[in-house]
Amino acid sequence: MPRAVALALLVSSAAACAGDVPEAEWSNGLLPGAITEQGETVTALWNGAWIAALATGAVVIGLIVWACLFHTRRRAKAELPPQVRYNLPIEMLYTLVPLVMVSVFFFFTARDSEELTYVSGDAPVKVKVEAFQWSWRFTTTVNGQTTEPVTGMPVSDYQQGPQLVLPVKQRVEFDLETDNVIHSFWVPEFLFKRDVIPGIPEDNPGRKFEITTLDEPGVYAGRCAELCGVDHSRMLFSVKLVSQQEFDQYVASNQAGSAQ
Questions:
Q1: In the chain, what's the furthest Cα-to-Cα distance?
Q2: Cα separations (Å) of 257 from 24, 149, 166, 248?
Q3: Among 31, 74, 23, residue whose Cα is nearest residue 50
Q4: Measuring CA to CA, which residue among 219, 152, 139 is closest to residue 187?
Q5: What are the angstrom distances between the C-alpha of 114 and each of 41, 111, 119, 198, 204?
Q6: pLDDT tens for residues 56-66?
Q7: What is the pTM of this model?
Q8: Which of 71-80, 182-191, 196-205 has the lowest mean pLDDT?
């Protein structure tokens, strides 16, 4: 018992110290609230899959209970029930229903995957993300204007790490790059993460993705989700969503080559 209490206190203390774990919401299937349109797509797919899985489970459990209640051998009857070698309608049902279910899952997964990986190429805000051991460098370009790069260092609190400022209700294109090991760019509220792999050419679509931010201003934690070395756990950053007016002021005061 004392060991269990100590372990519980340790886990709760670690969670409290992290401070970057978003709150899960029951309405989102225990996912954090999305701050992008693409995140809403992921939430819809996730909840739809759970609803289908729970409905299937309910039907299966119902059939098991029904069979146990109404097809149990009675003590008063010694004879066996009628024996059949096969039932063609039931066997066709067993084959067709899973096939239809898998086909439906495949359709919605393929449709949403195409949406999540689509890059138009004309997003007004473009962010170059450079991952390195063990932090991040963000360079933002807005309508041809490039801001000063924001370079971080390993930290224990995401609020002390490099901060990426983005406008609400705007399309943003990310271009991911690294020169050392594989990293993974992850903001939990995006409900999406992408590996940052060295050696991928700049014009390769595999290193880019695009989001459309929602009107959800605030500061959100980000981290590397791929074990990349000794300070992997300190490879923290934050994303700050602000109004368009505040974002324009940020870009104007942080242009490359301007006095700081």
A1: 96
A2: 42, 11, 20, 17
A3: 31
A4: 219
A5: 11, 5, 10, 24, 16
A6: 999 999 989 98
A7: 0.81
A8: 71-80
